[in-house]
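As noted in the main text, all predictions were made from sequence alone. Below is one such record, for RNase H type-1 domain-containing protein.
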Amino acid sequence: MHAGGCGGIFRNCRAFVKGCFAVPLDHVFAFEAKLLAASIAINFAWQNGWHRIWLESDSSYVVQLLSSRPEQVPWRIRQAWQCCIYQISKMEFQVSHIFREGDQVADALSKHALGLEVDSWWANSPSFCSLLVGNDCMGRESFRFS
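Prediction:
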C-alpha cells in the first residue's frame, strides 16, 4: 500500500481533448487505484453531461469488473463503486483493455497527482503532458522496452 494518484484524459470521437484530471489518493493498493481512477473518470463524465463514453484501461481487472458489475469490491471503495455502477447504468457505456503503452497521458497525469493536495481539472491538456497528447494524436507508438 502506498500513496497514489490517478489521472485520465477525455477525448471526443476525433481524438480532440475535452478535459483531463489528476486526483491524489490516500494510501491504496495498485488495483484499488486503478478501480478508483475508472470510477472518478466516470463521475467526471457524469458531471459534465457526457453520457456516452468509452473507457479504456490498462487494467484487465478493471475492465472485467466494469463489464460484469459485481457488487463485491474492496470495502474501502464500495461507496464510489456503487455510485459508478449507478452512473454507467444510465449511460451508453463501453469499456475495453489497452496495453500499458497506450496509456502514457493517464500515467503522466497520475504521476502529477502525487504532488497535488486537491483534485485538478484541465479543459485542455496541461503543458506537462501536451507532447504525449500530440504523439497520441499523430499515432506515434511509444513502447517501453527493458
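The chain has one domain: 2-137. DSSP finds five helices and five strands in the chain. These features were considered when defining construct boundaries for the mutagenesis experiments described in Section 2.9.
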